[in-house]
Amino acid sequence: MSKKKIAILGSTGSIGKDLVDIISKDKKNFEVVLLTTNQNTKTLLKQVKYLKAKNIIVTNKKEYLLIKNKIKKVNIFNNFNQLDKIFKSKVDYIMSAISGIDGLEPTFRSIKHTKKIAIANKESIICAWNILSKELKKNKTKFIPVDSEHFSIWSVLKNIHNKNIEQIFITASGGPFYKLPLSKFSQIKVKDAIKHPNWSMGKKISVDSATMMNKVFEVIEAKNIFNLSFNKLKILIHRDSYLHAIVKFDFGLSHLVVHDTSMKIPIFNTLYEDKKFNGKLKNINLKKLSYLNLEQPNLKKFPLINILKKIPNKFSLYETLIVSVNDTLVDLFLDKKIQFKSISKIFFSTINDKDFLKYKSIIPNNINEIIKLKNIVQKKIKSRYI
Ligand code: NDP
Ligand code: MG
Question: What's the Cα-to-Cα distance from 4 to each of 7, 27, 121, 333, rounded to whole Å?
């Protein structure tokens, strides 16, 4: 059997490393065409050596220049402009796991170079789904979502049409502050916010889990991927992160999807689809199943969820606005420039800025329009709060 050609965008991140672990157990069946990082060249070079990767991209200029002349037998690039040189023909699988809107351009540019793309970068799906889905169709590229909830929903839809979906509940752990009284939210530190109770993830998505903005993103993601209206999607708190989604169909059945709290399960299945999992699997956890303890989210503690009521069903640049405002505020929080509680306060005051409301009715035509809006938002917020 010929080797599967694969590429991992963001191989040094939490999702990227999980995938590297998975293919490391089956090295002989893979040819790694490309690995990428922003600045973590130490980890990247270890991965390159171990997986014998042919090409790498290091986007951080300083790190790129530092290692450019030191490595041999591997082609090194500084950006995603030369994918035509890297991919001579379509590869079998690309994982898009760069974080933030910065992952959009690499994701878009990769679609034509692969037979299948697994997209973890939720920002791409949220902000540019109309553009990505066109590109997927045009290039006959198969798409599988990686986010555990969306992978779970995707897995039950294999032989069922989306139009049969009556309702979907997406579960949320509630993050590290679910039990913390609101009066103590002003004392929250960065180190507390990035400590997720169930998942080990990158810093940005961990803060989004703490504010529950991650669930807002996931509702928009599900609405786009499965072509639903917002009223079919609901959030439920389930502290254990064992149940990922409940899909209710109009023919009377509902599917509940559970899996161990490991991103390796969805990642593995986007890669192999029909193979026995190559890691350790636990037995079905009947104790957790007996006490799912499903609850409604507390909107006083997690006010960002309220934004879902304001997003039009028709796709627009408003989604980019939401992602960009949030991303900028999370960066400011991680840099200790604003408080945790200020994230939601500044979020709503910015979103309601009259200059921005027009984006509710503007549909993006290309990814440059999305990136341009992100830059405008970033500049505006940073000029006020730095
Ligand atoms: P991490 O922060 O752990 O990793 C991000 C990866 O992208 C790293 O390789 C990083 O390089 C690279 N990167 C960051 N910024 C840039 C940039 N400007 N240009 C090029 N590369 C860049 O993130 P996660 O793995 O946690 O998440 C990745 C994506 O998957 C996100 O969109 C997230 O929302 C989504 N996701 C993650 C889940 C999880 O469990 N972690 C679950 C569901 C979705 P470097 O190492 O140098 O920083
Ligand atoms: Mg998720």
Answer: 10, 10, 22, 41
